[in-house]
Amino acid sequence: MTKKLDRRQFLKASGAVGGLAAGAGVLAQEQNPLGAPSDLAIAEKLVGANYTEEERAAIYDGLEGMVERTRQRRAEVTINNEDAPALTFDPRLPGATYKAQQNYVALTGEPARALPSDEDIAFASIAEQGAWLRSGAITANRLLDIYLSRIREHGPRLECFVTVMEASAREEAFRADSELRSGRDRGPLHGIPYGMKDLADTAGVKTSWGAAPYQNRVPSEDAVIVKRLRDAGAVLVGKTTLGALAYGDKWFGGITRNPWNTDEGSSGSSAGSASATAAGLVGFSIGTETLGSIVSPSMRCGTTGLRPTFGRVPRTGAMALCWSLDKFGPICRYVDDTALVLAAINGVDAGDPSSLDWGFEYDAAALAASEIKIGYDPAWFDGDNANPLDKAMLEQVQELGFPMQEIRLPDLPYGTLITLLEVEAAAAFEELTLSNRDDEMGWQEARAWPNTFRAAHFYSAVEAMQLDRFRRQVMQAMHDIYRQVDVIACPSFTGGMLTITNYTGHPCLVLPTGMESRESVPLTGEPVPAERPTHSVPRGFTLWGNMFREDQILALGSLLERQIDFKANRPGL
């Protein structure tokens, strides 16, 4: 005789299977758990279906086979985080044409100054640091010493490094100096110290993904992006912090701080990369974005972040969170610096099925003299809720003299697409959930990853497919808008552009626009205090570009950067 499960037991059991509309999950927990086909009515509520008793009886007969296939796959197939799905996302629409590009970067920078103070050197641009290195005014070893000294002074307070790699960094700096003396110049990044977000593998050095269950994980090979930056002559100073499994600014060792206001976190998930760059602890850093992880910490910390077109930079050797959304990108202090870094890391790699063979071309002078049509929605800047700095930024854009055009995004439920991220992330970390090692994660709120992963096992596979079809509709809608304009100017968290463009694969550039006085934002997972003091902190703004047209948003951003002159501001550490 079979026993019946009450609703609580049923839901608990169902959550372990996923992809079978929840109800079939019970079979994975007990030998003969379903008392009757009518029990499936509970699962129907999760997927919004309404079947008859006859239909339930027919479904019931096939459930055991479905669950058995799940049992077999789990028992006999090992799936690692690096194993990408057979279906890969391509941001290019069939029949659409995109500008082919050569690999070429030409800047319009000013001549380097006479060598200034150590602090001014630390906050200088990559181009200027490179000029000093090539002239012999400074060595790569000396530049590394400046940054290591600042890391020792400010790093512990900011909690922005998981691992400082001083020994290997000195070897790389020594090699950079030797090569420059012998006439071998690897390019603009030669001898420049940088930080790498701690989800890209470094051979023999811990790559922790920011999470307690993986804090002692030591890979045997370098990620492709690490290899490419080494080939470009850059000096890896250390692994920067990230919110656990690329969410937020709370990691297994603490909470990464905003250098402008250490009472609050630096946002995430590229928390350490933005914090270290803003504080002048590295020449530049590498972040990643799935749904705001470059934009958000750059907004908080006053850095310039470039999120490239999906597929430009291969993710081989990096933690996978969401295969159809994850993107590497540079976090710098200057717009043109992001172009130099992207040029070094751009390009296809066989280890990443989603990576694309597409050149990156940026001629700053030619683009500044060209016609770039800028789109915007006046509603984003109107009303009492619009931020004054955002309104001022629109005026700055208009003063550049480029043609402006009003646009309207289709009124669609863009937020529903987030389900795709939750499903892919739950699949990427299925083992963590099923083994109950998710209990080791430091952040356990309802909105934190452990609970999101658990809940995602209840999503209908049919709904995930329907959302993927809706995603294609959104891609077409944005393609139609970019037939009218080249760049969209929009506040970073307004109008749904952050969500939309992450799912369509379009690039964006966030840059600081000024300082504002605001209350501290609570740290990840911490309660909101009754009284919060105000601090002077940066605010940023985002330019959203057409597919593969990073050059246009960089050219526009570089002109705005000169008008705004934000570099006069520095954190008061």
Can you describe what's shown?
By secondary structure, the chain is α/β, with parallel strands linked by helices. The chain contains 19 helices and 17 strands. The strands form 4 sheets. An 11-stranded mixed β-sheet has the order 2-4-3-9-11-10-16-17-15-13-14, sandwiched between helices. Strands 1-12 form a two-stranded parallel sheet. A two-stranded antiparallel ribbon has the order 5-6. A hairpin with a 2-residue loop joins strand 5 and strand 6.
List keywords for this structure.
17 strands, 573 residues, single chain, eleven-stranded mixed beta sheet, two-stranded parallel ribbon, alpha/beta
Produce a short descriptive summary.
36% of the residues lie in helices and 14% in strands.
**From the helix content, strand content and strand pairing, which structural class follows?**
alpha/beta
The profile of the biggest β sheet is:
11 strands, mixed
- Regions with little confidence, pLDDT below 50 for 5+ residues: 1-35
Radius of gyration: 25 Å
Task: Report the helical percentage.
Answer: 25-40%
**Can you give the mean pLDDT?**
92
Order of strands, main sheet, comes to: 2-4-3-9-11-10-16-17-15-13-14
- Using DSSP, what is the number of strands? 17
